[in-house]
Each structure stands twice: as C-alpha cells, then as structure tokens.
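Sorry to interrupt, but I need a hand with the structure work. Could you write out one complete protein record for me, on any chain you like? Just paste the record in under my message, thanks.

. . .
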Amino acid sequence: MLSRNIRGKVVVITGASSGLGEATARLLSAEGATVVLAARRQERIAALAESLSQEGGTALAIETDVTDLAQVRNLVDKAVESFGKIDVLLNNAGLMPLAPLAQLKTDEWDQMIDVNLKGVLNGIAAALPHMQRQKSGHIINVSSVYGHKLGPDATVYCATKFAVRALSEGLRQEVKPYNIRTTVISPGAVATELLDHISDERIKVATQDFVSQIAVPAETFARMVAFAINEPDDVDVNEILFRPTAQPI
C-alpha cells in the first residue's frame, strides 16, 4: 500500500503553485498527507489548497519567497504551529533562465543562485531545528540531470544544481545523529513551466521543441517523491536520477 508511510505526515512544499510542486501536493494529499503549500503566487496555492480540501485533504497555503529566510522560517513555523510537526520538507522552488555566459546576464545568474541554491539553504535553516528537536524528519532537495552533467548555455544553472547535490550529501552526513532522512531528486525532461523563464528566444524555442517531444508529466516526479517518503523510516533513499526513456542526454 503506497500510503503506508505517507498518511498523516505533514509535508511542506516550496514552488507548489505549478508543475512539480503542484503535482506532488496532489499525489501526497490523495495518499493522506497534510500538505503546506508555499509559492509567491498566493492565488494559485490558495486555489490548490481549496481544491485539495474539497477532495477530503488537509492543506494550508502560505505565500512565500524562498529567497527571504524570514519568510521561509515563517512558512515552517506556521506549519508546525498548525499541525504540531514537520515531517517532510520538499525544497522544490527553482528556475532555469538558460543563456551563454558571454551574454553576461548577471541578474539571471544572481536569481538562479538566490532561488536554486540559497532557497534550498533557507529551507534547511528553517526546518532543521524542528527536525532536530523531533529526532525525525525528511528533507528532499531538487537537483536536475544538469546537476550531473554540463550542457551548452546552461553553465550557471548546472552550477546551482551541482551545488544542490553537494549540499544534500553534506546534509546527509551531518544529520545522522537526529534520525533525519535526506533525498536529492534529479529529473530529466519533465513538462512544467520551467522553460518559460528562458529569456533568450532562440534557446527557449529550441529547448521547448526538444522537451516537448520527450517530456514526461510532472506526476512522474511526484511518484519519485512519494516513493522516497513511503519507504520505512530505517530506509534512507539518498538520490534519485530519472529521465524519460527517450532522453539521450
């Protein structure tokens, strides 16, 4: 039974307004988890929370910018105040504005570092003290196939995703005394809004064309998250790398 170790857990999900986060919230809620939805688009997560509640789930929407540590701490603290604990943090918020380094899009570099890397650090900073006190918990970070290999025009994005993998392994080693589990998930081509962040029109069109031919739905990622959570508490699924079967790179 899939929900054996999911039912009753309190799961905080960043980037929950669409794509991977939304799909994961829907699946975990259906399996009996309480989901706390975080994103900057308050109207989107409020509507999602309402939808899940109408389907019999328990959901709370909290507007959150993951680049702001105070907001992320507020998110996690409200989850704990509302439901008494935090079992899982899914650090899912991310963006991918691809461009060659030579274009010097330094604002985009800063944005990727702030969201993709510092956002994960902020999530850890907010959740770890609670999980240490509980002597339990599970932190799931999202990397990418581009956290395992470099691609043209993706240098800074790859750097942030390589960093998330390094951070996740360091976290894994440090939290053993607290019975905390850690997972890093690296998706390949998945159908989401991620490509909308690409400002270079040539790269955007080429990437969208490639991805549209092979992408798997966001529910694929959600099942990976559910698998990692659902394993017994003495099993720590540390890393998942998946691609569409048709993806060659």
In short: Residues 106-134 form the longest helix (29 residues).
